[in-house]
Amino acid sequence: VGMKFENYDGLFRGVGLNYKYFWDEYDSKESRFILTPKFNIELDRTTIKLDVKADYLNTEFADRLVNGAKNKYSYFIIAAEPSVEFSDENYSVQLGVGLSYINGTSNETNDNSFVVYPKIKANVDLVKNIVMAYAGAEGGVSNNSYADFAEINPYISPNLTLAPTKQQYNIYAGLKGKLYHNISYNVRASYISEDNKAMFVTNEINPTLQTKEVYMNGNSFGVMYDMVNTFNLFGELNLNFSDAVTIGISGEYNSYNADLNNVYNLPDAKVGAKIHADFTKQWYGGL
């Protein structure tokens, strides 16, 4: 359940509020509460912003093979991201910083930390309405939840280790614009550093266990965390036909480097295609 309120005048510009409750057939349960208020001050060609985020996660896994023991995780992340944006007809520059405090408990062990990361981005029109250059250095802290993992991979086991991921920085630069009046493009290179990046790993069969749950037969995944640096190249091309049909193709390449272990189940490359069609003013479809 959730709500969103937007205001287009004054200091307070809006707030988002979301609550999710998630459970499974193995007595696991998880609650998550996210609050995101935003504040803006508009000056002449200058905008002062403050984005705030409060993210509370409480998860309990019940391992029924070990005398009913429960694995409990509780993380509360509070983040403030102040920034100032300067803009003109041909450029915009945002200078900011992110400050996040993590108050966590992992099976009754405290897991607290303070994270500082950049929130900087800029773009400039090299050729008006034809070529725009953009660049930035951003970061952030995000909770890893049982519900989010299950949405990505339905074959995860209900005995995960949970911890937030700290994106220390994402440095990127790119170009976007038009090759022709109906052909647009976007190309970008990025270098990303993430502490506690989650990766899916196969749960091996343990032959010594006399009693097994159905997910303990080499048919499920767990998660492993590591410091991972990623070099990413991304490109996309969009073709618009008669303002009614748009075809887009995209691709990206990734190269990884982990501190402690190998990199597991992260894609070296991705390719994608999409079609959007407006049939009438009221009806549209996509593939």
Distinctive features:
mainly beta; 15-stranded antiparallel beta sheet; 69% strand; globular; 1 helix; 287 residues
Structure commentary:
This protein is an all-beta fold and 287 residues long. It has one helix at 146-152; strands spanning 2-6, 12-23, 29-43, 46-63, 69-87, 91-106, 109-110, 113-127, 131-142, 165-180, 183-202, 221-241, 245-258, 269-278, 284-286. It has a 15-stranded antiparallel sheet that branches. It is globular, with a radius of gyration of 23 Å. The mean pLDDT is 93.
TL;DR of this structure?
By secondary structure, the chain is an all-beta fold.
Q: How many runs of DSSP E, i.e. beta strands?
A: 15
Number of helices: 1
- Note the main sheet: 15 strands, antiparallel
N-to-C series of helices and strands: EEEEEEEEEHEEEEEE
- List low-pLDDT spans: none
Mean pLDDT value: 93
Principal-axes shape call: globular
Q: Give the % helix.
A: under 10%
The secondary-structure class comes to: mainly beta
N- and C-termini, Cα separation: 28 Å
- CA radius of gyration: 23 Å
* Beta-strand proportion: over 45%
Question: What's the topology here?
Answer:
Layout: E1 2-6, E2 12-23, E3 29-43, E4 46-63, E5 69-87, E6 91-106, E7 109-110, E8 113-127, E9 131-142, H1 146-152, E10 165-180, E11 183-202, E12 221-241, E13 245-258, E14 269-278, E15 284-286
Antiparallel strand pairs: 1-2, 2-3, 3-4, 4-5, 5-6, 6-7, 6-8, 8-9, 9-10, 10-11, 11-12, 12-13, 13-14, 14-15
